[in-house]
Amino acid sequence: MSQSAISLRGLEKTYSNGKRALDGVSLEIPRGSMFGLLGPNGAGKSTMINILAGLVNKTGGQASVWGFDIDEHPRNAKASIGIVPQELVFDAFFTPFETLEIHAGLFGVPPRQRRTMELLRAVHLEDKAHVYSRTLSGGMKRRLLVAKALVHNPPVLVLDEPTAGVDIELRQQLWNYVRELNAGGTTVVLTTHYLEEAEELCDRIAIVNNGQIVANDLTSTLMATAQEKILRVTVDRELTEVPPGFAATLAGPRTLSISYDKRHSQVGAILTALADAGLGIVDVSTQEPDLEDVFLSFTRRDAVDA
């Protein structure tokens, strides 16, 4: 049995209109990891997830979940994964309790083994267990989908844009619960447009663009690939223009924002050059690159290569 939670090998998907959504994607997601799957809209992330869920048929390649090939062992593969979709999909006239009970029944979970109230309690919906789902707020509906994905206790949980439209407090509650699941051994795969979430939560990240994996590494390693830093320097007098010879902008009357490549430039040399230009240094701070910088560098590079 594969030691990967999810294994994709040469996965391809071409739709009937000729659009090539996945172009030979190969990816191994380690068991027990908190894995980020990032990419711009239309990159192929949702197609990949829908293939794993059995909602879209692949054109070529192989895919397995928890060691079960989705073609050879579809029932086992589907039982090994829980997916929280972007869309709010459930019957508005069922209560949250009924929704989870029915979904557990569809997965063949015996009544005595169902964890309906436990899951509702975990996602802070215990007090809404017996009201119509249509009366729930957007954030509550999103949390109900998380509980729904967990009724069969899958070892792999995929969260496709789970915090879209969720306020900050509820987002924090959701992530605390997801962290608990991951600490308990559940492999979590996250797609999100909130890059700070992926940077904070994920130990490994893959970036998808134009149906291909353009980056796949530890989050810390990817962060190290962003070479451009920002140096903010406050000087001893007001400036009306940027001193000649500096790739800088005026961030304030006395503050310069200087971009530099940390591979080729040193802060000391920049400060020396400013002093040589007759400027006194009052304060200095640096801004490290974040995941957004990494993301943009890889997607732009991929666009140039294409």
From TrEMBL:
UniProt keyword ATP-binding, yes or no: yes
Keywords on record: ATP-binding, Nodulation, Nucleotide-binding, Transport
Superkingdom of the organism of origin: Bacteria
UniProt xrefs under InterPro entries: AAA+_ATPase (IPR003593), ABC_transporter-like_ATP-bd (IPR003439), ABC_transporter-like_CS (IPR017871), ABC_transporter_ATP-binding (IPR050763), P-loop_NTPase (IPR027417)
Residue ranges of domain ABC transporter in the record: 6-235
Any one GO MF annotation of this record: ATP hydrolysis activity
The keyword Transport belongs to this UniProt entry's keyword annotation: yes
Secretion signal, residue range per the UniProt entry: none
Family: Belongs to the ABC transporter superfamily.
Listed name of the protein: ABC transporter ATP-binding protein
Naturally occurring in which organism (per UniProt): Glacieibacterium arshaanense
